[in-house]
Amino acid sequence: MERFWICGGKKLCGEVQVHGAKNAILPLLAAALLTDEQVYFEDVPDLCDIRSMMEILRHLGCRAERESGGILVESAGMDGCDMPDKQCKQIRSSIFLLGPLLAKLRCAKVPCPGGCEIGLRPIDLHLKGLRMLGVHIQDVEGKLVCRGENMHAGNVYLDYPSVGATENVIMASVLLPGTTVIHNAAREPEIVDLCRFINRMGGRIRGSGSQVIRIDGVKRLYGVTYKAIPDRIVAGTLLCAGAVTGGQVRIRDAQFSNLLPVIDKLTEMGCDIKREKGGLILRAPGRLCAFSNLQTSPHPGFPTDMQSQMLTLATVADGCSMITENVFESRYATAGDLLRMGADIRIAGRTAVVRGVEKLTGANVRARDLRGGAALVLAALCARGESTVTNISLIDRGYDKMECMLASLGAQIKRISDFREEHIHADP
Ligand code: UD1
Fold this sequence. Notes:
The chain is of the alpha+beta class. The protein has helices spanning 22-31, 48-59, 85-90, 98-105, 124-131, 163-173, 189-200, 232-244, 260-268, 307-315, 335-340, 370-382, 393-396, 402-407, 419-426, and strands spanning 2-7, 13-17, 39-42, 63-67, 70-74, 107-111, 136-140, 143-147, 155-157, 179-183, 204-206, 212-216, 225-227, 248-252, 272-276, 279-283, 294-295, 320-324, 344-348, 351-355, 364-366, 386-390, 412-417.
């Protein structure tokens, strides 16, 4: 039971570094199973989703260890394709293991995956893609039993450019003889990173970053050392922290091209953002202006993982902003807490209309999902007075010691372990 205590009103100033992207590293860890040789990932943040993924790899008989800031994976000893219920229910990304397990062992047994409660999050597209490669899939007592004896290269059309489904089909097809073509593939930077990694291991993938990805099957892949792309959502959240507090922050290793939709909106709100030696620098105005219309959509559209943070910014911006969430159906869970802090938000279906108020007021609020939790921290940073954000284990899923990053920029924030709260809940 931990929470953040935050005293708002401090302008954030200074410099902070972003590390490897969680959403890149999770599929990379799965893809490391495609070779028997050692793979080393550099600069991997210590996040619980990454720890859960490493536990699953170890359960399958692989080596997965932390070593000098990175992670070493070796799958030569992999001796099972039955994935553990507990960890798979904790992280949705466990579903990424379907593709590599099928590629390597021609079988995979996986319980239905878990993850943040931000919508229905079905896995039908993953299964459709794998079926198009000849995988036989059955639901046996709540577990998906996938058999790949008859797997073959082929044409896969995704009805929607799902990030996870694209990654799964890529990993399932890398070792199949012949050419697999994915149509309507996702174009996220994390997909490009996965393909770059597999190609470095000896794979032959063309077209990543476009809607058509071609995978020429190879006989085997080799061990490499690899560094994932910097986390664009952590970088975007830090830019928002600078913006909402009227500060000036430099984010080392933030990639301009991967953050364009966020930079565009922050610029519309009055921020000045420049590329500077290996990073970005943001200078915020005294008060942010409202943005006219923000619509989330698959890359290169506005990332849904930055929507909650922008909702917070809109609550204190001058004027009326409108947000439409097109990717996940339940991603306004944070709005209730923002209302308690004095925000003016009206939600109808997928659209939120936000009238900016001069100041939010500190309150006790609760993280409901990963990015929504980060959005509440942003709200507390700019609010008048003190706030606490509870349920921060959700925030820890995507931000490695968020309080340290923000404190290094001058924020008044502390992590508090409150055992009393646990007792209160335990008492009947
Ligand atoms: C990934 C990211 C997540 C991000 C999301 C969208 C990781 C670990 N997570 O999640 O942070 O928010 O991309 O950018 O990389 N869908 C289906 N059927 C499927 C798969 C998806 O209907 O089989 C729907 C989802 O419910 C959702 C939409 O497609 O509405 C997008 O999902 P998807 O692109 O698959 O996201 P994830 O890979 O789960």
